[in-house]
């Protein structure tokens, strides 16, 4: 019998897996109040990285990350995505300058003017950024991953795109890399960049994920976050937990 295999990093990176390893095991009971396990802790410590070293990420790292992304769940398993990777510094800089040009136009709009569809956080960034401090759209990252959204996806493909993005950032985290979601990348659709990048219908640029070696150690510690009220129904009763 041939061993089961999975592609980890291209043809040269095939790794044999023991079929027995896929057998379902009965999970151990974890007492209430137990320490976080390895996977939980990784999610709790992961942080968005907004300052990167110039050192490029090895190509096979990115291939591993994309492979983990490819296995993300999606509605009806339609997998409404494909990946685009940009590692050319000149292209990244040019894309950044285009988005910044749009920012400058928005920043010139009088304060208090409503911009339909614009979240208040980026507007505050545009209008209240300290004078003389440049905004780095892609934070100096040497690699960008664009999960392109297939508009033909079942239900809400943008949700599936968020799931595949989570797989990507957590796979990168496991390899010691930093990442950051960049929603401003959607601004590239208002230009010839989709054509230059080979993006056409039914695919669309929605988000970019920066990938690189972080400056500092933002992901090494837990950060406090305010708890949220959760409504809980069980046994015919309604209660709230935090």
What does this structure look like?
The chain is an alpha+beta fold and 242 residues long. The chain has six helices and nine strands, in the order ββααβααβαβαββββ. It has a domain at 38-110 and 120-128 and 138-214: 3-Layer(aba) Sandwich (NADH Oxidase). The chain has helices at residues 38-45, 59-70, 89-107, 120-128, 157-174, 193-196; strands at 4-7, 14-17, 81-86, 143-150, 178-182, 203-204, 208-212, 230-234, 237-241. Strands 3, 4, 5, 6 and 7 form a five-stranded antiparallel β-sheet that branches. A hairpin with a 6-residue loop joins strand 1 (4-7) and strand 2 (14-17). Helix 2 packs across helix 5 (157-174). The longest helix has 19 residues, at 89-107. It is globular.
In short:
With 242 residues, the chain is α+β, with helices and mostly antiparallel strands.
Query: What gyration radius follows from the Cα positions, in whole Å?
Result: 21 Å
Mean pLDDT: 85
| N- to C-terminal distance | 52 Å
Number of strands: 9
Structural class: alpha+beta
CATH architecture term of one domain: 3-Layer(aba) Sandwich
Q: What is the element layout, followed by pairings?
A:
Blueprint: E1 4-7, E2 14-17, H1 38-45, H2 59-70, E3 81-86, H3 89-107, H4 120-128, E4 143-150, H5 157-174, E5 178-182, H6 193-196, E6 203-204, E7 208-212, E8 230-234, E9 237-241
Antiparallel strand pairs: 1-2, 3-4, 4-6, 4-7, 5-7, 8-9
